[in-house]
Write a structure and sequence with these properties.
Strands 3-2-1-4-5-6 form a 6-stranded parallel β-sheet, with helices on both faces. Helix 2 packs antiparallel against helix 3 and helix 3 crosses helix 4. It has 224 residues and is an alpha/beta fold. The protein is elongated and about 55 Å long. Helix 6 links the parallel strand 2 and strand 3. The chain folds into 2 domains: 139 residues, HAD superfamily/HAD-like (Rossmann fold, 3-Layer(aba) Sandwich), CATH 3.40.50.1000; 67 residues.
Length: 224
Amino acid sequence: MRSPAGAAGADDRLALFDLDNTLFDRAAAYRRWSEAFVDSRDLKPDALELLLELDDDGHAPRSAVFGPLCAQFGLEDSPAAIEAAYRLEYPNFFEPDARVLDALHTMRARGWVVVIVTNGPPSQIDKIERCGLSDAVDGWCISDVVGVAKPDPAIFQAAAALVERPLAGWMIGDTLRADVLGGRGAGLRTIWLARGRPHPTDPALRPDVTVETLERAFAILLNA
């Protein structure tokens, strides 16, 4: 976490962004890491397919990925050892996106206050820094650091308190339960990045706005 950068605007110009598969392409970074891992171990292509399948778009515990991998391919390293190496190596496969950084700077120049709200370990900060986001937002709340996770309203309250703003504005993310249900429960309007997935039928998970790309979400916010 860090303190606000100082841009001020209307009280509801608070934009809370998810991190993985929202502000950067987590799926692409994970594929790059998986390809490098498979190459380094001289494994068959089936190993790459298994890594991608078990990942569950980043929602699966790493033990549920690396345990079956070790068992199926007879790896000498333990799942815990592979996970430890993964935690160290993985952030290196993230890359800055100039379009995202430009859009965030534009939002802040127009009076928006921007905070990243993400579930995950403290190492999420490595992703934020690797992608150049630390200088493009006003702060961040990482669940394992603040002690509460989405969809609990408390993490959104912590994000607003961090930048000394009322909890009024938008939550933007790609996960229906964490970002949409959580954002709605905290009294925020929500934008969901569908990324080609079916739209929800449960009214409780229905966002205010559905978009396919982050660029479209930025356009909606900047014209709000």
